[in-house]
Specification:
heterodimer; A: alpha+beta; Aldehyde Oxidoreductase, domain 4; Aldehyde Oxidoreductase, domain 3; eight-stranded mixed beta sheet; 18 helices; globular; B: alpha+beta; Ubiquitin-like (UB roll); DNA polymerase, domain 1; 2 domains; 6 helices; 6 strands; binds FE2/S2 (inorganic) cluster
Chain lengths: ~775, ~180
């Protein structure tokens, strides 16, 4: 751990900084091609309706229109974990806004005009809008065909119901655990649907050429997964599909898997030779791309008087929306992490993904953990107060530690949460609290602190792998060929640092180019906070491989054993003899020996990584000795000021501490934490997608769906603990998603300490806080 | 209906014939290939499309190209390039005040407009100046730091040199520890 490093742990400047501050960086929506056509989508006007007639004949005749498609033209089901979704509605629309038809035309104006000429006749069906009604026997079904859908083995749909996945944890004996308890606390919690709302809306261009090859340029976190889904659904070989990914203007999970790109495929196939381009409007971005599922849950915990938790029962119901191809896995992930950071001997968890006639639920930064921790972390404070204990002290008693087991029965080692919690409490200046805040008469504003913990593992199939190729150019500069996506998280910077460290070249001499599935090294997806961990390991290995070749060349060149040469700062040298050194360029394409003969050849290093030893969870109990690759822990403490008249919460200060295993770049890591904290704050205080009784989204704009602005930022104290991850590069593990998870419950806990009230439904708007204060 | 317009974009006069409904944002991005200004909402809500018109920051998605007839328009492309960064751009680089980058051209232009108007802003004035520019990635703190630093740099002695050397942005504390 204490080895000397050049670039690891160093705050090099982001590799994409110059491109981004000068406006040179290109995103999918910036791409322009000859013969390009513009796409607009006709969207359904009911939450649930049968399509009686879709007549596009008039649109097809409009001059300038090159292609029109409807669902029956392209009835292929697609999906990452559950194959339940068609790019266009077939026979039925299942949410208000679902694509019914698409038009590609010579201008956006003509495409828009054509949409107006498409005639659609609907027969309205009863919409399924209430999550808890949807699970009752006799509820109308959103997908009566559910039993026919293909899915991965880890997903458990319940045929002939609206439940598309039922995940279970059965650990120990809950009955016995509750019988042993001195106190049982039970409550319910709710999170509404929210939107990722990246500043860059989804955008894509698709070209089907005369050779029958499909090329897609997309704002995507998942070029390789997109290619896989399309290839499986269309039964095309993968070499007919190419996905290219320029910079992504923010993803947060919303650009994972296959998205709006699917709607372009049939249009491209009809308009052969014309690239067809779609850029979502902000309204479409809000409603018609993945959203975070709503979730209602009931949590019940048994505890001894001494503070030790004996049992937990957790029921989560996820409002999955019209298609749950990706959402089913969110449900699963939130299920297996349902112990949070606590060591709970007896557990029963049921996590249900439920179809409703709402927008399509999918992955959002935190992947179910912002939701389940909203419940768990408030619940812990509630129990602590019932026992008359300080919330930090109560947590310390129950935290997972060396040898603890989590919900899946996995025995844990090297657990950093204790240090994180201690440090967060120290940074915020925590003082013991043992009860609700009391409002003194005449006081207008009160300040209080709150704290919350979190843990999360990457939710991915066991074969989620990474590869890397390191190519040396003639002049000794380096092409690092990887297919992780730069979403803003700093992947290109950190991976370049790892490459520079291992290869011994300068960081500035390394370049990473946009992802291209035809030419790029394989990468599963840029999701699950897994890139530094997984791709980082592949890069390490590839750079070491390249260095070995370089040293081999050098050994022949200098006539010394390979072990006597090394590479640093772009130079290859004989150890202990500074006069015998050459720039990497001299040996990059091979060595020219003293007799002028050649040796070796151009250097290409290769590396790969797959997390090893992951064992599938038992279908009935969710138990596994190693269900996931790793767990990242963290804690956040907040200080708020509550305006008692307005009910307005202002977050003044946040202390965020995460166990990153090893920090590769202290600035990009801290910056990512800050961004996550503010996103968490925004979700905690402002964000909710609102629907009317017909399932229409009422607030698809930044005016009506507020996100945090510069005016709301708190003082942020960021700190890292480094308990190394055994198989991570230099011990590193991911933190990207984690950092927004505990902010809302920490605020909720501070609210209770301020005024003795609790808002168990997100967001904690002034209205809801005012209402809670009135109830007191 | 088509209109002939003459606009001075990034210091050069451009003559063009545009339809009356053409937005300034599309004129810049589609007709002039200046893709720095981004569209985030198309409704004046996000600031990603911010450019300067006669020195004032405007949402170019809300302005028609014909309204810019005769005006001076500055986009991020006119501000500086890698060889010659504007102090605002330089400060964004040095403070790591960017992540996905999509909001950044708009942020940089709002900051530039502020510093033209008010070379010595307070932190509150900086926050106010960018409160119409949404960013989903950074949490804004480093952006505010960068603008404050740009103001000081301009105040001191002109722009700092560009480069990709180690930055000066505040890093987090790191404590190394064994597991429990
Ligand atoms: S695109 Fe102009 S303000 Fe959002
Ligand atoms: S850097 Fe991504 S929106 Fe600001």
């Amino acid at each position: 751990m204490a080895e000397k490093t050049t670039y690891i742990g160093t705050a090099v400047v982001r590799s994409d900084a110059l491109e981004k501050v000068t406006g040179a960086a290109r995103y999918a929506g910036d791409l322009k091609f000859d013969r390009m056509l513009y796409v607009k989508l006709l969207r359904g006007k009911y939450a649930h309706a049968r399509l009686v007639r879709v007549d596009a004949s008039k649109a097809r005749k409009l001059p300038g229109v090159k292609a029109v498609v409807t669902g029956t033209d392209f009835p292929y089901r697609m999906g990452l974990y559950l194959v339940d979704r068609t790019p266009y509605a077939v026979e039925k629309v299942r949410y208000y806004g679902e694509p019914v038809a698409g038009v590609a035309a010579v201008s956006p104006e003509v495409a828009e005009e054509a949409l107006g000429l498409i005639e659609v006749e609907y027969e309205e069906l009863p919409p399924v809008l209430d999550l808890l009604e949807a699970i009752k026997p006799g509820s109308p079904l959103v997908h009566p065909e559910l039993h026919e859908y293909e899915h991965v083995p880890a997903i458990f749909p319940v045929p002939h119901t609206n439940i598309s996945n039922h995940f279970k944890i059965r650990k120990g004996d809950v009955e016995k655990g509750f019988a042993e308890a001195d106190l049982i606390v039970e409550d319910t919690y709710y999170v509404p649907h929210i939107q990722h709302s990246p500043l860059e809306p989804h955008a894509a261009v698709a070209l089907y050429d005369r050779e029958g090859k499909l090329t897609i340029w997309a704002s995507s976190q998942s070029p390789f997964a997109m290619r896989k889904i399309l290839s499986q659904s269309l039964r095309w070989p993968m070499n007919r599909i190419r996905v290219i990914g320029p910079y992504v203007g923010g993803g947060f999970g919303g650009k994972a898997g296959l998205n709006v790109e699917a709607t372009l495929v049939p249009l491209a196939m009809k308009a052969v030779g014309h690239p067809v381009k779609l850029v979502c409007t902000r309204e479409e971005e809000f409603r018609d791309t993945f959203v975070r599922q709503g979730m209602w849950c009931r949590l019940k915990t048994g505890v001894k008087r001494n503070g030790r938790i004996t049992a937990q029962e957790f029921e989560m119901y996820w409002d999955g929306g019209a298609y749950t191809e990706y959402g089913v896995n969110v449900t699963r992930a939130a299920g297996y992490s349902s112990a949070g950071v606590y060591d709970i001997p007896n557990m029963k968890t049921d996590s249900y993904c439920v179809y409703t006639n709402k927008p399509v639920g999918g992955p959002l930064r935190g992947f179910g953990h912002g939701e389940n921790h909203w419940a768990i972390e408030q619940h812990m404070d509630q129990i602590a107060h019932r026992l008359g204990m300080d919330p930090v002290e109560f947590r310390m008693i129950n935290l997972q530690r060396e040898g603890s087991t989590n919900a899946t029965g996995q025995v844990l080692h090297n657990v950093g949460i204790g240090k994180c919690l201690e440090e967060a409490a120290r940074l915020i200046g925590w003082t013991k609290v043992t009860g609700p805040g009391k409002i003194e008469p005449g006081v207008k504003k009160v300040r209080a602190k709150g704290i919350a913990c979190m843990t999360k593992a990457p939710a991915m199939p066991n074969d989620a792998a990474s590869t890397a190729i390191v190519k040396l150019n003639d002049d000794g500069t380096v092409v690092l060929n990887i297919s992780a996506q730069e979403l803003g998280q700093g992947a290109f910077t950190v991976l370049s640092q790892i490459c520079a460290e291992e290869l011994g070249v300068r960081y500035e001499d390394i370049r990473i180019y946009p992802v291209d599935t035809d030419h790029g090294a394989y990468e599963w997806q840029t999701v699950a906070s897994r890139i530094t961990y997984s791709c980082g390991r592949a890069v390490m290995e590839a750079a070491r491989d390249a260095k070995r070749q370089l040293c081999d060349h050098a050994s022949r060149y200098f006539g010394v054993p390979a072990g006597d040469v090394d590479v640093a700062d772009g130079r290859v040298f004989v150890k202990g003899d500074p006069s015998r050194r050459v720039p990497v360029a001299t040996l990059a394409l091979g060595a020219t020996l003293p007799d002028f003969s050649g040796y070796g050849g151009p250097i290409v290093g290769r590396g790969k990584f797959i997390p090893e030893g992951i064992v599938a969870m038992d279908a009935e109990t969710g138990q596994s000795p190693k269900p996931v690759a790793n767990w990242t822990y963290g804690a956040q403490a907040v200080e708020i000021e509550l305006d008692l008249e307005l009910g307005k919460i202002e977050v003044k200060k946040v202390a965020a501490v995460y166990d990153a295993g090893r920090v590769i770049n202290p600035v990009t890591a801290a910056a990512q934490v800050e961004g996550g904290v503010v996103q968490g704050l925004s979700i905690g205080l402002f964000e909710e997608m609102k629907f009317d009784e017909r399932g229409r989204l009422l607030n698809p704009s930044y005016v009506d769906y507020k996100i945090a602005t510069a005016a709301e930022i708190p003082e942020m104290l960021v700190s890292f603990v480094e308990v190394p991850q055994e198989d991570g590069p230099y011990g590193a593990r991911g933190i990207g998603e984690h950092v927004m998870v505990p902010t809302p419950p920490a605020i909720a806990n501070a609210l209770f300490h301020a005024a003795g009230v609790r808002v168990k439904r997100l967001p904690m708007t002034s209205e809801s806080v005012r209402w809670a204060l009135k109830q007191e | 209906m088509l209109h002939n317009i003459r606009v001075r974009v990034n210091g050069e006069w451009v003559e063009a014939c545009v339809p009356s409904h053409r937005r300034l944002l599309d004129f810049l991005r589609e007709d002039l290939d200046l893709i720095g200004a981004k569209e985030g909402c198309g409704g004046g809500e996000c600031g990603a499309c911010t450019v300067l018109v006669n020195g004032e920051p405007i949402n170019s998605c809300l302005v028609l190209a014909v309204e810019a007839d005769g005006a001076e328009v500055l986009t991020v492309e006119g501000l500086g390039d890698a060889k010659d960064l504007d102090p605002v751009q330089e400060a964004f680089v040095q403070n790591s005040a960017l992540q996905c980058g999509y909001c950044i051209p708009g942020m940089v232009m709002s900051a530039k407009a502020l510093l033209i108007r008010n070379p010595n802003p307070t932190r509150d004035e900086v926050v106010e100046a960018i409160s119409g520019n949404l960013c989903r990635c950074t949490g804004y703190a480093r952006i505010v730091d960068a603008i404050m630093q740009a103001a000081q740099a301009a105040d001191a002695a002109g722009p700092a040199p560009a480069g990709r050397a180690a930055g000066h942005a505040p890093a987090a504390e790191v404590s190394r520890a064994g597991g429990e």
